[in-house]
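Give me the fold.
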Amino acid sequence: MPFFQRLGTSIVTGFSAGLEAWRAGALSPSDTQYPDSWDRLEDRLTRYIDANHYFNNTVYTSIQKYAEQKKLDTGLYKHIRPIYNPVARLVGIYRAKVYGGQLDLENLESGAIPIEAADERLRDAIRQVWRWSNWGSQKTEYIDAGATFGDAPIKVVDDRERGQVRLDAMHPGLFQDVDFDDVGNVTRVVIAYRYFDKQSKRSYWYREVIDEEMFRTFRGDELYAYHVNLEGDPVAEWPNEYGFVPVVWGKHRAVLGKQFGANSFHASYRKIDHINGLASVLHDNVRKAVNPVWAVSGARDMKTNLTRTERDEMLILQLPEGGSINPMVATIDIAGSLAALDHSIKELEADMPELALHRIRESGNLTAPGVKAGWADAIDRIEEARGNYDSTLARAQQMAVAIGGHNGYGGFEPFDLRSYERGDLEHQIAERPVIEDSLSKEQTITFLIQATSLPVNEKKIAYKELGIPQDDIDAATEGQVAQENAAIAALVNELSTGGNGNASTDAGTGQAGAVGNSEAANQPVNEG
């Protein structure tokens, strides 16, 4: 079932129940009138709905009762429209900067999620979990959930019918109840949503209750066997052999004293509303100035009411003698209004420094040092969020490997439920730069071609900075000049062909024919 379509009636019910608290501003974690509302189910679901509308830019759609009530209760301009809504762009930045790119399924050392401090057996097991989970796609849903809703749960699914264990990035609104221990480990969950049964052609409530003792599944209020055990028999309840609840609860940003997290824009709702209200009023008045209402005096039998299809047309009227017509246009300082709007947008972007990259583009300073300096506070926020996502994912992977070993699934033989205690599951997700400032392959080749004129000691330092193995450095910096140049040419050939040895060389020089831009410091930064 699609990730953002599994909420069913539970969201609608939660929104209706939480509307009163929402009107009172209870979606703020510091609310004093409703101190428990941040973690309460109804208000949590309301918060998810609100965030989803901002993400999809449907927050002011007039056909929705939700939007009409929001306008009324918060004093918004009646004709407000989503002219400036940076939420989807902000979420997209986190999607790209936390786990952007492809997974490295060969050795797990690079790519979107580089694994470190794990031995080869653990890497093999994690690779299998990723493949079974289609994690290359699900990692995007995981980050989208956290950045949009503030909460990003991962359920470890033990699919005994297929003999697989996988990670399932779930919508937080599917969790009707979640209990945590003192350090944030999940100790009990209730998962519920409506689904349509094709055989009976009826819709039912699916409910799953997991604690540290038992698994139970229900259809409506009755136990119902959705799953099978290792013998292939359908079961509705079975003991929890793991000793832990196979769910980890990720948060985009932790909130002091609260169980659930805050999203990437939780403090900016009202500023977004203010900007869109101001922009909508300004646009409407500009429209009136271009196509004003006309006041006619001294004439009779004039058509004064225009139909909807005629209101954008310019009418030519013939007036009787003595009649006059004048535009009714309010005086508006468009330049001043635009300046106020721009000031409000800059104020919002001060709260969302991740959005400031386009202003760095406008300045033209797109070298890596320039972006790092101008985007430093945004980089700090992204790295903070990465830490939350990384630690949650690492715990989920540990659970998955332990469960796979416990069930004897292929590739998980070295592990069992005690592997965590023995330290066999220890690993972490490596740090990676938010702004990529390493030399491109073309720049590296160019430098190597030019390196023949450098003294030996300088060559060694430069090659080491480029990440060239020490054995290759020694081969390229020892012996006579001809040997040095031949070794350099071999390195150039290796880089330019990706190791297939088919690069063309200039006759008589032994140097590869690739030439790049040597001004590496002025190269545009890779924003991916």
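The radius of gyration is 31 Å.
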